[in-house]
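Thread title: Can someone regenerate the structure for this chain?

I was given the following input by a collaborator and told the matching structure tokens would be attached. They weren't. Posting the sequence so someone can regenerate them.
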Amino acid sequence: MIVALGVIIPFVGTSLGALLVFFIRGKMNEKIEKILLGFAGGVMVAASVWSLIDPAIELSSEMGKWAFVPSAVGFLIGIGFILLLDSVIPHIHQGSEESEGVKSNFRKTTKMMLAVTIHNIPEGMAVGVVLAGAVYGNSLISLSSALVLAIGIAIQNFPEGAIISMPLYAEGMNKPKSFLLGVLSGVVEPIAALLTIVFVQFVTPILPYILAFAAGAMVYVVVEELIPESQMHSHTNWPTIAFSIGFVLMMILDVALS
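Best answer:
Regenerated them for you:
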């Protein structure tokens, strides 16, 4: 039951955010959008540190002064994995007109959806690997810490759902379809979480590497996408403040509730 909750909670966050398309008329205010991007980035970085890298180092404590190795290796592989996806999958980021990845004839809305999919894969993996560590009896990872991470990702997903559905509506798509696509953009998260849980079952000894892998993947998304998008043009101070608030909120949740 708790595993199911952990997998579904982030998806619910995305769906609730997408629901805003029915309540906000026109295009989302640029300042609000930047604040939401900054907040999401802060949550993801804090989750990467306290929910993933910190446990990975603790799990490797028997290695003594070399306890950093699994985290360092896993982190860099996670960076490389999302870099590979970013280079191969055709997509376009919010606020940009230039496509990335291999050339394709996909519509702009499809490329926007694929950009969010790349973004959501590491978040689903992060929730899945922490849930797996708790389910398979690792004493350093509790179900409560897994749920805290899921809640943190859900909080971060709320603005993401809005950020994908609102531009689709602004591009001329009707509200129900914009909402549906906003919801579907989050489907990859529970799928990635479930696949990670199954995978970890067979490779428990390399759990520290997988934890750090998820952290590296999330940090790549923050640095390559969220921060640049939040700092474009004007209102650059607001997303920086929002990043700090998101970081502190996720840190408090992880430390106080785990």
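The chain has a mean pLDDT of 85.
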